Amino acid sequence: MNPIRDNTFYIDNSAIELITTCPWLAYASIIRRRRPATESAALRFGGFLHQVLDYRYHQIALNLPWTEDQMITLASKLFGDSPLETEGWRNFDSAVKVIRAYNRRYPQAQETSTIPVLSNGRPYVEMPFAVDTHKTIRGLNIIYTGRIDRKEIEPDGSAYIVDTKTSSVLGDTTWADWAVAEQFRGYCWADRECTGSEPTGYKLDVIGARESMANAVFDEITGNVIPVGAKSKAVPLELVRQPFFTKVPGGQLDEWFDNMLNQVDYFLYLMEKCGDNPVLWETHRHHKHCIGKYGPCKFYNVCALPRESREDALMSSAFKEDDWSPLYS
Q1: Model pTM score
Q2: What pLDDT, on a 0 to 100 scale, did the predictor assign at position 149?
Q3: Per residue in 186-217, pLDDT tens?
């Protein structure tokens, strides 16, 4: 989706991450709308598990029946409809192990929270939003958009925006990163603006799946995914739920909002300064982020080429148009 339409700039968390990581990355992704033609196995695996869990919680919210077999059947269809030669251990077999372990760890009978259902009968699951900030920056109205995995209300009335994360890397650094991530405060802000009530915070529903899943089995007795071999110390799968509080101390969401507007202002300033000239955008690259914690930037090979070859590479078959939007499935 074009981010600028009818004097309005539509911004989402993914775009903010691009802007703060590297302006040229944001230019290639947001303005030129380019993304790799080859799908990432990690994003595909996590995305499919998202859809399977969305089905489960959609049914739970509406008090409709669901079964583990139905979840596995959905996963089978998703993987079958989108084959990937380079999926490695992130395959259907690993997804089945995750689904079975997840349902054993979090059986419906032990879920104490409830998922709100809107007046139109839609459950608060995979909820898209577009919130008018009522702010104008460089002549453009700013609308913040996104998609919330689900919202949960605890028995004591506390409300959490829940986000499912699938990661092969879990540790103190990962949790520290998520504790300050702008994505979740943005979602809490959007929920507050839409409902008129500030949520208590956000909760991460984390699936820590590792490469050792390939040589692991689901243990029917313990309900865990365990490595094959008595001497193996690998931990193929971790399932963790962790709440983070944004309502107390107060003001966190307002700080996020002000910061987000400043980030948008900086990007719109660069748009005014650089226009459609890729050479000017290239002078605003942040090389520190060429290699991140998950590997090279998706445009790493483009930037590594001589300047006169970069445009052809960007428009080559190695990339395709990015038409993703959080507002559409």
Answers
A1: 0.94
A2: 98
A3: 999 999 999 999 999 999 999 999 999 999 99
Q: Model confidence at 144, in pLDDT bands (50, 70, 90)?
A: very high
Strands 201-209 and 159-167: parallel
Q: Which of 90, 229, 251, 88 is nearest to 166 (CA)?
A: 90
Could you list the beta-strand ranges (E) of 201-307.
Answer: 201-209, 216-218, 225-227, 237-245, 291-292, 295-296
More confident of the two residues 2 and 12 = 12
The length of the chain is: 329
End-to-end CA distance of the chain: 12
DSSP annotation string for 50-101: HHHHHHHHHHHHTT----HHHHHHHHHHHHHHS--TT-TTSSHHHHHHHHHH
CA distances from 134 to 128, 140, 152, 183, 208 (A): 19, 10, 28, 20, 39
Judge whether 307 and 279 are in contact, CB under 8 Å: yes
For 171-196, give one letter per residue: b (16+ CB within 10 A) or e. Answer: eeeeeeebeebbbbbbbbbbbbbeee
**How many Cβ atoms sit within 10 Å of the Cβ of residue 243?**
13
- pLDDT tens-place string over residues 231-276: 678 899 999 999 999 999 999 999 999 999 999 999 999 999 999 9
Query: Which residue bears the tokens 């050479």?
Result: 279
- What SS3 state is found at 119? coil
Q: Which of 229, 141, 146 is nearest to 185 (CA)?
A: 146
The pLDDT assigned to 293 comes to: 76
